Amino acid sequence: MSRIIDSILKRNNDCISFEKIILPDNIITDQEEIKEATRNHFSKWSKENPPNQDYQKEWEGYYTPLAKIDGKIYEQLMMPFELKELINIIAEAPVHKAPGPTGISNEMLRHLPKIALSYLLELMNAYVKWEKVPK
Questions:
Q1: How many CB atoms lie under 10 A from the CB of residue 105?
Q2: Cα gap 21→29, rounded to integer Å
Q3: Which helix (H) or strand (E) segment is 28 a member of?
Q4: Ranges of each domain in the chain
């Protein structure tokens, strides 16, 4: 199925080829070991980085809301998204960019039928309502 989508979207998947991986204490030449080392490397590429509580006091003043700024200006930020807004954002998003961890590219989003966009919109608005960020 993905080959069909790639063909429709006229995408090329250029593969990177490794003959060897040089580590500080080892050189890997076996193709399966190279694949495993690459998978292992990128699975740890971005790891959890919990905040350092020692610095919290130092930065607290910078994150305290300023009294001179009316908090009502932020109320619009939590308003539900509208379908027209979602369609415009997808239309304006750049194409031929690498997809994120989901594997969903902007080209794929541009080809979604309206019913799928409606479901995506419901999902996005639920995340805003529940104040959750998808992982």
A1: 20
A2: 7
A3: strand 26-28
A4: 1-45, 74-135
> Token match 């509580």: residue?
53
pTM for the predicted model, two decimal places? 0.50
Residue 112: other Cβ atoms inside 10 A: 16
Provide the total of helices (H) and of strands (E) in the chain, helices listed first: 6, 2
Could you tell me which of 92, 95, 85, 98 has the C-alpha nearest to residue 124?
85
Sequential pLDDT tens for the chain (135 residues): 677 777 777 777 666 667 888 888 989 999 899 888 888 888 887 777 788 888 888 888 898 888 999 988 888 888 899 999 999 999 999 988 888 888 899 999 999 999 999 999 999 999 988 988 877
Distance of alpha carbon 28 from alpha carbon 32, whole angstroms: 10
